[in-house]
Every structure is written in C-alpha cells, then in structure tokens.
Amino acid sequence: MEYKHKTVLLNETVENVLVQDGKKYVDATFGGGGHSSLILNSAKNIELFVFDKDLVAIENGKEKFKDYDNIIFINDDFSNIKKDILNQNVDKVDGIIADFGVSSYQLDTAYRGFSYMQDAPLDMRMDRKNTLSAYEVINNYSEDELYKIIKDYGEEKRAKYIARTIIERRSISPIKNTFELVDIIMAAVPARYREQGKHSARKTFQAIRIEVNQELKSIKTFINDAFELLSTGGRLSVITFHSLEDRIVKNAFKDFSTGCTCPPDFPVCVCGKKERGKLITKKPILPSAEEIEENSRAKSAKLRVIEKL
C-alpha cells in the first residue's frame, strides 16, 4: 500500500539539525520518509535511525529506501528512543527530528478511523498491535473519564454535554463507527455553539486519538530521552500541531536552557542548576503562506529547535 504524506516544514526542520558527513541522526517519526530522504541526501557516510510505530510506514520505508545501506528501521514508539538506540550499540547521536502530526496517510485511510470526514470503524490506533482503540474508549470509559479526556485533550467547551450524550447513546447500543460518533457530537453541540468554518467533531476526535495513542505521555518521555541522547552540539528539531504538544516542548526546552533558579538576592548559587541547552528558536518557526496554501494541514505547525551544550 502506498504511503502518501505531505511533509511539513521539510527544509526548515532538516537544516536546523546541521546534517554533516559521518554523523548519526534520528528521524523519530518516519511517516512517509520526507524528512529522512532529505537527511540522507544532505551529507555522506551518515547513519540514520528511523522510528515509526505504524508497521505500514516501516514496510513502505524499507521498499522506498531499499538501495540505502545506512538507514536502520525501528518499528516502535518514539518514547522508546533511548532504549532502542542504545540497543543499536549507539550511545550518542548528532541530531534528532520529530514531527508530531498525524500523517496524511493515516487521516486519509478510511478504515483507520482517524477522520471525522470518512465513515469507518472506531479505531484510531497508530500501532495496530495496541489493544486500546477508539471503540474501547467510547464504549467503556465512564462519563467522567470521557469528559476529562474531551475537555483536557480536545480543549472542547461542550465536553460535558458530548460525554453525557455518548453515555446516553451507547446505553441503547454500542457506538461502532466514526459517523455515529460525529452524529452524537453534532447533537451535543447546537448550531449556536459551533465555530464557523470548523467541524464540530474535530476537537473530540483529536482528544480520543490522543488518549488511544497516549500521545502526550509519549511526547514528554521522548523529549527528555532524546535530549539526553544528543552529543554536545547536537540538535533536537521538533514540529508540533496543537497547543498541548507545543506547551510540552516549549516548557521542556525552557528547562533545558535555564540555569540557576536561585532568588536574585542570593549571594551565591545554591541550587546548582546549569544550562544544558541553547535555544536556537526563541520563537517557533512557522510555515510560509505558500506552504499553507499548498498543504492546509501545515497551518497549525510550529517548529522549535534546541542545541545541547
């Protein structure tokens, strides 16, 4: 099956990890291989380790890059980056990139159940080996659990009513398909509460997807372990697509690049905290108007970069 995906902020992401001959790099979210392709063609004699927990992406990548002997495929969640890289007998790498967006392939492949625009079984698993699916979340979580997920992960103002309506509908029969869930959400979000030009189901679908794939937990683990894996002067280049992801990355980068936190009236530092990183992007890099016009899914992307000291 062909894996189609329009890579966001392609040049900006790769340029900022300063790919050099003979160095080691990681593409933590391989997807369709856009970033990886540019890395491989930016320098000589490099080693590239690529991660994707979606086996379809890995299988397509192996076919796409079958003529390359310097790319190592790892079918795992990027939160396991430290363990998996150490298992390759590598203790430090020179650059890491990650793109936290859901791939166009996953969104556009109806049977995966990610999209509220196509009817499909409620699934949303990036890793098909996982037992937790959107069906389990929607049909088995309590009203309070659903409310919290939709409110926190979707930042949905009507979370209480959506959760309650889900409970009412599933008491009649299980909710099996994406369009059933869309109908429930629309019933819980009257016209006067709907955002003009934006689908009322998008925030709830985002929330359920995040819960199914434990995305925010994975991101927190990844950011810390990826930074630890960097060699001195190595860079971590990360693309986020919504405020929850961006907040995690922004706060982690701030912590890495902040030194002494003692009150200013202390004569000497007693906390012992030292800067471990240097912010390369004081403000995130955003897609150009031209890129957004070519790929509407790029419009919410933000790129942040940090260098290890």
From TrEMBL:
What does the similarity note say? Belongs to the methyltransferase superfamily. RsmH family.
Could you name the domain of life of the organism this protein comes from? Bacteria
Q: What does this protein do?
A: Specifically methylates the N4 position of cytidine in position 1402 (C1402) of 16S rRNA.
Q: Where does S-adenosyl-L-methionine bind?
A: 33-35, 52, 78, 99, 106
InterPro entries, alphabetically?
RsmH, SAM-dep_MeTrfase_MraW_recog, SAM-dependent_MTases_sf
GO BP terms:
rRNA base methylation
Give the species this sequence originates from. Answer: Criibacterium bergeronii
* Location of this chain's protein in the cell: Cytoplasm
Q: Which reaction does it catalyse?
A: cytidine(1402) in 16S rRNA + S-adenosyl-L-methionine = N(4)-methylcytidine(1402) in 16S rRNA + S-adenosyl-L-homocysteine + H(+)
Spell out the molecular function terms from Gene Ontology.
rRNA (cytosine-N4-)-methyltransferase activity
| Any Pfam family matching the protein | Methyltransf_5
**What is the name listed in the Swiss-Prot or TrEMBL entry for this protein?**
Ribosomal RNA small subunit methyltransferase H
